[in-house]
Amino acid sequence: MVNRLRQAPPRSWLLLVVAIFFIGLPSVATNFQTFEWAEVLIFAIAIMGLNILIGYSGQLSLGHGAFMALGAYTSAILIHRYHVDYLATIPVAGLLTGVVGFLFGIPALRLSALYLALATFALAVVTPSLIKRPVDLTKGTEGIVLRAPVPPFGLQMTSEVWLYFLTLGIAAVLFWLAWNFVRHRPGRALRAVRDGDVAAAASGINVAGYKTLAFGISAFYGGIAGSLYGIATAYVSPDSFPVSLSILLLVGTVVGGLGTIPGPLLGGIASFFLPILSQQWVPTQVWIPPQVASAIEKAGPAVSYGALLIAIMIFAPNGGVGLIRAGYGILERRLRAAGDRGTGQAPPDAQTI
């Protein structure tokens, strides 16, 4: 047993540390901090869906916030108007949004990368206006007010802690499903489509089918995240899903690392905390001219997103996961070299000469 633990790969230990961190976080954090990390996990779920679409199938989308809006309003309407239990609305929102995303992916097959990005961006722009139209159903600009989620089964915990563990459990299941999806035949087919449509079709892969499937899965994840977001905030309105939300999710996908499973978690952390930290950090820097600081504050998170994207493209083109892997590889080589010097063995290159 001890030998097996010693031979366990580093990623297993890293996974264990991450699991201990997230499970034990509510015991050392306040209710407000616990709620913040629940929102981080919600963003991570949405980014995972976008990562499957962009990172694995190679289709660019700038309208993922629209799928979150559909999921949020599906749960809100079922809870407020039809008095459905909020837990039952989560899978319904995910499935409905997944079907809509799959249907949206059918005409998207005829669009090139640039026009697909414009079409999805237009979807994000028009969604808030569409939500306002059926006033009887969506309450228009007033939005829908919900009750705070109550822990079921008589669990003795606050609503913030229960919401955190609910989101953590759903995120763990969805991340596990994504991991199994991308490492088997569908994931390999998506990567083949991403690398080259013609070569994938020549290999017998149904390119159209897998592209629409990627849209459906991506929308499903976005619908689940939107449903959780609406339940968490206990309020949904058209202003809750602006165009900047879609840009935020895209930034999180790139920052975390395209085509990786841990990347969306890093992207969710960066997407949620970066605007907060930037707004707190800029006013404290006396070396920044007042005019520049005022312009940054007025621009809001856009400046932070732009600066982070530029830094990622220059210093870590593979995202946060790629940066961690590169750092681990350097550390492993140095430890191996130190061990070889301690045992008096020549490096592998010297032994072959």
If you had to describe this structure to a student in words, what would you say it looks like?
The chain has 353 residues and is an all-alpha fold. The chain has a domain at 2-243. It has 17 helices and two strands. A two-stranded antiparallel ribbon has the order 1-2. Helix 9 packs across helix 11. Mean pLDDT is 87; it is low at 349-353.
Question: Which key terms come to mind for this protein?
Answer:
353 residues, mainly alpha, two-stranded antiparallel sheet, 17 helices, 2 strands, disordered C terminus
Amino- and carboxy-terminal Cα gap: 39 Å
Counting helices, strands and paired strands, the structural category is mainly alpha
How many helices does DSSP assign? 17
Approximate shape: globular
Overall number of strands: 2
Low-confidence stretches: 349-353
N-to-C series of helices and strands: HHHHHHHEHHHHEHHHHHH
- The radius of gyration is 22 Å
- Major sheet size, sense and barrel closure: 2 strands, antiparallel
Write the layout of secondary structure elements.
Layout: H1 2-7, H2 10-28, H3 31-56, H4 64-80, H5 86-108, H6 113-132, H7 135-138, E1 144-145, H8 159-182, H9 185-195, H10 197-202, H11 207-233, E2 235-236, H12 243-256, H13 263-281, H14 290-299, H15 301-315, H16 319-343, H17 348-352
Helix pairs in contact: 3-8, 3-11, 3-12, 3-13, 4-5, 4-6, 4-11, 5-11, 9-11, 12-13, 12-15
Short structural description:
This protein is an all-alpha fold. The chain has 17 helices and two strands.
